[in-house]
């Protein structure tokens, strides 16, 4: 029998065809996930750059309300989802303080929760590629084993032996294994490529989260220092005024 895929397909049994259909479905699922995730990562990268160009200046000038509005417009940006939710939580808690947690600490906890959700969204669908890359060879091997069993069963039924009697069935069975490898190898390569890009994006989000928390802590630390200096200056002015009036307000 010549190596003709069409002839091999027509000689396949029902089980081997089901295995082949399953592997083709695996291949289609891998391609759909790969191109969808690749488009998502490229779109998110561009949206993040456009957002940080505007939002960075707003954070430096402490225009937090405008930053939240800008983040709500950048729907494709993972960075906007992360920092926008954090700034929104910070503003709400700052305007209506309640409970034992301050605005900065509550924002830190909210950023951790948003970071986990965004990270899961970035890696969404990649388990499909990992599953196809690990399962497809075994599915193909299953088809090969069943095909060889059927070939030897045919020999036992007809009573004829020899290599020529089993070569056609074995070649058909091995084609299924080759198809499984053909599906699995690109799936593994696509998974590694997407994993590298997703890890880079998640790392940049983590760095942005930490830098934003440094910004909030520095802002509150500066504000607290200014307030303490203001209270000290006010007390000194009161003491000087009292001395001018002839009253000594210093402790004995």
From TrEMBL:
Keyword Protein biosynthesis among UniProt keywords: no
Compartment(s) where it occurs, according to its Swiss-Prot or TrEMBL record: Cell membrane; Membrane
Pfam families: MotA_ExbB
Biological processes per GO annotation: protein import
Alphabetic keyword roster: Cell membrane, Membrane, Protein transport, Transmembrane, Transmembrane helix, Transport
Regions crossing the membrane: 12-35, 127-153, 173-194
Membrane protein topology class: Multi-pass membrane protein
Domain annotation MotA/TolQ/ExbB proton channel: ranges: 104-204
Gene Ontology CC terms, in alphabetical order: plasma membrane
Family annotation (InterPro entries): ExbB/TolQ_transport, MotA_ExbB_proton_chnl
Protein family membership: Belongs to the exbB/tolQ family.
Protein name: MotA/TolQ/ExbB proton channel family protein
Protein species of origin: Cystobacter fuscus
């Amino acid at each position: 029998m010549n190596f003709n895929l069409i002839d091999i397909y027509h000689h396949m049994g029902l089980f081997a065809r089901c295995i082949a259909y399953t592997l083709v479905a695996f291949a289609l699922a891998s391609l759909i996930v790969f191109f969808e995730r690749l488009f998502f990562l490229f779109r998110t990268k561009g949206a993040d750059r456009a957002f940080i160009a505007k939002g960075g200046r707003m954070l430096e000038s402490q225009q937090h309300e405008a930053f939240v509005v800008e983040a709500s417009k950048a729907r494709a940006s993972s960075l906007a989802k992360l920092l926008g939710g954090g700034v929104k939580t910070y503003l709400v808690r700052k305007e209506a303080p309640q409970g034992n947690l301050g605005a900065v600490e509550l924002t830190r906890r909210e950023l951790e929760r948003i970071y986990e959700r965004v990270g899961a969204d970035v890696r969404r669908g990649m388990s499909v590629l990992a599953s196809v890359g690990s399962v497809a060879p075994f599915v193909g091997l299953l088809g090969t084993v069943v095909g060889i069993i059927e070939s030897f069963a045919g020999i036992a039924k007809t009573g004829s032996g020899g290599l020529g009697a089993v070569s056609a069935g074995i070649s058909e069975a091995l084609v299924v294994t080759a198809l499984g490898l053909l599906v699995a190898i690109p799936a593994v390569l696509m998974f590694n490529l997407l994993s590298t890009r997703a890890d880079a994006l998640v790392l940049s989000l983590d760095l942005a989260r930490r830098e934003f928390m440094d910004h909030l802590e520095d802002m509150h630390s500066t504000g607290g220092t200014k307030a303490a200096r203001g209270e000290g200056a006010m007390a000194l002015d009161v003491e000087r005024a009292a001395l001018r009036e002839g009253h000594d307000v210093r402790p004995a």
